[in-house]
Amino acid sequence: MNFFKKAPTVKEQQRQNDRELRKAGRDLERDKVALEREEKKLEMEIKKMAKEGNNDGCKILAKQLVQLRKQKTRIYAANSKISSVQIHNKAMGANIAIAGAMGTTAKTMGNINKVLNPHQIAKDMEAFKQANAKMDMTDEMISETLDDIMDESGDEQETEGIVNQVLDEIGIEISGKMANAPSVARNKIGNSTTDADKELMAQLAKLKS
Predict the structure, then answer these.
(1) Cα separation of 83 and 87, whole Å?
(2) Which residue ranges traverse the bilayer (predicted)?
(3) Is 150 strand, coil or helix?
(4) What is the pLDDT of residue 121?
(5) How many Å separate Cα 208 from the centre of its chain?
(6) In the list 37, 150, 182, 191, which could disulfide-bond 154, CB 3.0-4.6 Å?
């Protein structure tokens, strides 16, 4: 005898119960079919004896028929009880499965919480938001500083370059005009420069000031 035989689990026991209940139901079904065949035979015998006028024989067979039908009723009741137990057994199996699934789910969620650590995640998210805000502030300060530098140096250089370009263009134009203008040696003494030359000289003096 094996004293160390492992006890069946609840799920295994539930399956064993289901197998035994199905077997019991099949056995009762066979008994019921046999009783129904015997019932038909008794009914035919009773009719036969009734036609023959054998009242005593009819009474004996009628008593047997009554007992047989009572047995059939008990089989119906037993079958009903077996069906009810089968439903209960299946429900128990379903509840066990649900309980197991819930246990697994709870364990899995616990493991996830251990890995994720919601408090640490919230702390990290807050630190990230603060760091991001500081980064935005630093970026804005750098942009403003660069803008100030460009305003102080780049814009001034660009402005000076444009002025020089304009002056060069005007100078070239003035040189051209001056080359074509009559010189003092070629004009009479006392003659002044033209009005156009005076205007160009005034613009040049204004830009250089």
Answers:
(1) 6
(2) none
(3) helix
(4) 75
(5) 72
(6) 150
Please give the model's pTM, rounded to 2 decimal places: 0.44
Average pLDDT over every residue of 23-41 = 90
Question: Counting Cβ atoms within 10 Å, is residue 192 exposed (0-12), middle (13-18) or buried (19+)?
Answer: exposed
Q: How far apart are CA 99 and CA 183, in angstroms?
A: 116
Tokens read off for 52: 């023959």
Q: How is residue 113 written in tokens? A: 């919480």
Closest CA to 167 of 155, 156, 179, 175: 175
Cβ–Cβ < 8 Å for 50, 132 = no
Q: Which one, of 21, 167, 149, 27, lies nearest residue 92 by Cα?
A: 21
Which SS3 state, helix, strand or coil, does residue 57 take?
A: helix
**Helix spans in 53-184 (H):** 55-116, 118-149, 155-180
Residue 71: band (very low, low, confident or very high) from pLDDT cuts 50, 70, 90:
very high
Would you give the DSSP letter of residue 1?
-
Residue 170: how many other CB atoms lie within 10 Å:
15
What distance in Å separates the CA atoms of residue 14 and residue 94, rounded to the nearest whole number? Answer: 10
DSSP letter at 7 equals P
